[in-house]
């Protein structure tokens, strides 16, 4: 590249000699930026979602191309967040696309130091068995002579992005098992 070509490639030179004296348009573009296309422009579809991080429940637009998430942005139609996301919400694409994301159940045995993969059916059986054992071991028929029929062996703390219907169903499930310590993060 010659000296003249090199100097003409500088944005300040293009700003002073071209039709963009304030440097807010073409003078600021390099050959690379001139050819950039937004990740949202190539999406096949946009799926509405809710940020999973906190109790605010900011709306998100998830851009999908060929079955893969290409971008996640704030949903301007959301009455909660009006298109804005905090830094954690803006980084939720990494939850789906990170190479470090696990797509299998991992289990570490008591006193173990390593994780081992489990199939989903085995993991669900282990969870069900432990819930039933905790219920049995923590069951109380009476408390100070008063009939209570409850268990203090487990509790439920629902996540922040659960909606009213999901919280209702969780409350019903845990109440039917005798639990009394049931809460959701949205109320905390």
From TrEMBL:
It comes from Blastococcus tunisiensis. Residues 44-100 form the 4Fe-4S Mo/W bis-MGD-type domain. SUPFAM superfamilies: Formate dehydrogenase/DMSO reductase, domains 1-3 (SSF53706). The keyword Oxidoreductase applies. Belongs to the prokaryotic molybdopterin-containing oxidoreductase family. Keywords: 4Fe-4S, Iron, Iron-sulfur, Metal-binding, Oxidoreductase. One of its GO terms (cellular component) is cell envelope. Gene3D superfamilies: 3.40.50.740, ADC-like domains. PROSITE patterns: 4FE4S_MOW_BIS_MGD (PS51669). SMART domains: Molybdop_Fe4S4. Its cofactor is [4Fe-4S] cluster. This is Formate dehydrogenase major subunit. GO terms for molecular function: 4 iron, 4 sulfur cluster binding; electron transfer activity; molybdenum ion binding; oxidoreductase activity. GO terms for biological process: anaerobic respiration. It is found in: Cell envelope.
């Amino acid at each position: 590249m010659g000296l003249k070509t090199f100097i003409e490639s500088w944005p300040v030179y293009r700003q002073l000699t071209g039709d963009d004296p304030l440097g807010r348009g073409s003078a600021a573009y390099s050959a690379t930026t001139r050819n950039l296309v937004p990740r949202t422009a190539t999406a096949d579809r946009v799926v509405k979602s809710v940020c999973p991080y906190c109790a605010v429940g900011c709306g998100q637009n998830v851009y999908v191309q060929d079955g893969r998430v290409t971008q996640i942005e704030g949903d301007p139609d959301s009455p909660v967040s009006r298109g804005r996301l905090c830094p954690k919400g803006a980084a939720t694409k990494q939850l789906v696309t990170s190479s470090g994301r696990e797509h299998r159940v991992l289990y570490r045995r008591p006193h173990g130091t390593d994780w081992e993969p489990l199939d989903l059916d085995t993991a669900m059986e282990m969870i069900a068995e432990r819930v039933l054992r905790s219920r049995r071991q923590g069951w109380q028929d009476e408390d100070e002579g008063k009939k209570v029929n409850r268990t203090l062996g487990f509790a439920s703390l629902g996540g922040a992005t659960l909606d009213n219907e999901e919280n209702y169903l969780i409350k019903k499930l845990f109440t039917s098992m005798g639990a009394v310590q049931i809460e959701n993060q949205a109320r905390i």
